[in-house]
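Record format v2
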Amino acid sequence: MAPTQLALLVLLAPLASAAVIALFLRRHGGLASMLSVLAAAVVAGAGLVLVFGGQRFNASMPWLQMGSFTLSLGFKFDDLAALMLSVVGVVGLAVHVFSLGYMHDDGARGRYFGGLSIFMFSMLGIVLADNLLMIFVFWELVGFSSYLLINHYHEKQSAADASKKAFIVNRVGDFGFLLGILWCYWSLGTVNLSEIAVAAEGGKVIAAGIPLLLFCGAIGKSAQMPLHVWLPDAMEGPTPVSALIHAATMVAAGIYMLCRIEPLFAAAPQALTAVLWIGTVTAVYAAFCAIVQSDIKKVLAYSTLSQLGYMVAAFGLGALTIDHSHGDGVVHSVTFAAGAGAAMFHLTTHAFFKALLFLGSGAVIHACHHEQDIFRMGGLKKLPITFITFTLGVLAIIGTPGLAGFFSKDAILYLAFANNKAVFGLLAFTAVLTAFYMIRMWKLVFLGTPRSENASHAHEGGISLLAPLIVLAVLAVVGGYTGTYGRLAGSFADLIPVAHGSDHTVILVTSIVVLLVGAGAAWVFYTPAPKDALATRVPGAFAGLTLVKESFDGIYGYYVAKVQQRLAMLLNFVEQIILSGLVIRGVAGLVGLVGMGARALHVGSLHVYVYWFLLGVALFWGFAAGVF
Amino acid sequence: MTMHVDLLLVSIATPLAVALAIFAGLPKRYSVKLAYLGFGVPAAIALWLWSQFPSDPGDTYAFLSSYPLGLELLGINLKLGLNGISLPLFVMSGVIGFAAGLYAIQSGAERLKIYLALLLVMQAGLMGVFASVDVFFFYFFHELALIPTFIMVGIWGGRDRSYAAMKLTIYLTVGAMLSLLGLILIYYQSGVESFDLISLRQEAIRIPLSAAAQKYGFGLLLFGFGILVSLWPFHTWAPLGYGAAPSSAAMLHAGVLKKFGLYGLIQVALPLLPVGASHWSGVLTVLALGNILVVGVITLAQRDLKQVVGYGSVMHMGYAFLGIASLSIIGAGGVVLMMVAHGLSVALLFLLSTCVHHRTETFDLTEMGGLAQKTPVLAAFFVAATMASIGLPGFANFWGELTIFIAVWKLSPWVAAGAVAGVVITAIYALRAAAQVFFGSPTEAFSRVLARTTPVDLRWSEKIPALILLSLLLFVGFWPRSLSTPINSALQAIYPALKVLPLEIVRK
């Protein structure tokens, strides 16, 4: 098959699966799940053939034309897209297989797997798109599939609220994103990614507002401050969905999109500063919030926020200039898009270990009969495979040397060290917090003795639950070595900043120290107990962190209830009373009072209305036309 | 091509003939069977002509035919044809009419025969509006469709039906009168003393209308058509009227008939009165933003499902007006796309709201909740319709909004920002309403209803009309070229020749 056809197959297989499920398999959960998994397998298989086949290509066809505006439906399959495709394909398949077991007894399995298939289709559209508007189209569609899947347990009010919130908050981000696209279109005359790169690299002046507005899209989708509030709530969805959509792929799409438009940022570096600080603040803030969570999925959700902040910050650190000496004393300066390289590297390793952690938490929740409170777990090391794989995931995320997270986190720390020492300090501190809250959770869940009925009766799940864990655990171990990526690594590896010489020592020491401090503190501080040690021993700190966590929701809740809804009520009142009441119905009465005759007071007869209405329109028109 | 020539006439005459037969006293069982024919034939013709439409028509009309009525001396002729602008609306009209008709036939309304006959007259008028090349008949068919609307609201309407019917009548009559004045002004000022749009355009290319005539003519048409399309602040008839109207009438009026005004602005007013249009563009922009932002926020305060749909529909007209105010091919083309999409989605929403009402026995959102547990298919359809109306890609609505936004950015980035903000507002009220009806657990009030009767999921008689509307929304959503190609071809040929230009170029 030609690569273009293969790419089409990758894109359309999940769409076909979703369509068939929606039309025919609503009540046939078993068939629906098989079909959906098959589609995911086709995506993974054909995707990997494409990725490692080595062919890179562009292809497009017209989709819509109106006047001078043309929009094409096209593929831009370069190394960046290939990397993202392999992540989506592999994690996607793992999650689909995991769902076979996890959702086996769900009454609405057809809807669930249909939703997963729509998601795969939409996500792959973002990956393959060759222009910003096409990214936007699929961007909205992933938002829709996320809405569907968060709302899977729709009879729960909290799930219904969370799905609505996720969609609306994302729309707020997309407000900026769409404006950015419009601006980009009229400013550069194109939304095609390759043409944008040519224009930006060709020295065309780029207003900083364009990349900043486009970044708004990433703030929404990748849940950066201040639009991060939807992601923790999104944990209402089934756990495999959290793994796929709200940890590994969709929320990472914001970072992917930023890397797609990297030339715009390179041409308007002021915009990068905003990106850098939003990412950094999100990383620190979310890590603090994670410390006081008691729901296993919420810990992971805040951890995801924090790690996404890491990636955004990495992108915001921008290019890196390094000096190469060639032994003959001549020094060459090389500048490369290290920010994008580091961000994508971390995106990839994070996708593996975070999907692993979420699926692992799913296995734990499954084993404990839907118990999600870590203070009611304990002693789960008796589930050997879940325990080992989950532990590997924890070790990877906290940056244990040799595992995936170590390499990608060090790349970011090194870049921060080279470009911005303040950010370096904050990110290193975030790493301390990361090790702290992960070890806290790990110890509470797996060590000690079971603290609830459900936890004591826990037993390991079936093969469909365990196989994905094992695959992802392997990737969480080897994902940091660029050799794993075969033919991809060539261009991909060149962009990853790697410390040398004394910098290397500084970074290595830093990352080992933060790991030991964070993990050690948690190990000492928390004991497997039914109460949060922080809440009992330092209640002030616990209350403070809880307040910090809830402040945003509080402010937004106040805005929605007290500002937005009151404005709506006020305008509605004005409309009902003044516009349709007084002006339209009662204008006859009012004017009659100033002497137009008693006849006009006969409100109720049709033609009087007509005349007064006509007069009103004429006055309005004359006013608008400037007659008066 | 000859075999297609009379199909346009057939598409108008069939529903009219069936209506006359029913009025003449046809027994009920034949009436219902014939009604299928009356609604089905226009839809079949519309889809067939779509498939036969030339790929690059330019400014020519396809399927052109003329029927002398003895009014030639006045410059009036029953001349039918479709160009790239009217084709999409003609198709939409046929499809929505079919869906609304199917639903009405199965609805078991009181005095079903008369109801169907009125609906068929409306359908004939709607097909005529978009098939007319002659401006007189364009107007005449609109009136033909309008009168049954008043009657249907007045007789079969729900709450407040007499007040709603009266208000509807006043507003729409005034709007129609103003636009008639504008059309008559064009008739006299153009110098051809004809209502034939083709000769009007040719003459306007040769000698444009005087600037003053254009200014007043466009003003009359803008406010006349504007009232018919619920331009802010002349919109208050719409939510009230739709709230009271029976569902099939609301589907046809909000979905199709309302588009008459926008269609008139794009097909008649903009090409013939471009200078007038640029004069009014600023005012129109402000009022359109009123539709989007003010009415949008008002929609947030609605607690009645039908009012949410009604106000939401008014709000979306703001996008259409902005597309017109942008005075560009992108904008006007976007409006045509949007008209089709909005027509289908709002008809679908009115249909599904009625389906909800049959199960909850109320339109009050605060007395519902958790319906999806009982009726998952209805919930799925409703969520799909909601997503269409909030402009999710994959549905036709997205393309209309997107092209309009692109055009409006050129008008002013700030106006574009206001318009795009409307997209957020829409998401808020639409998703809130969907969640209040279907998700969470039943409210106390709805629990009492549930205790009496168990709601059944969507019946086939409801599902088929809904599927028809949804399929077309998705088809255009995935394949926008199917409509954008003829629209673009026509606008590219018509607008530059008549100097419909972006604002800044005209003013400088």
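The beta strands of chain B are 62-67, 78-82.
Residues 2-507 of chain B form one domain.
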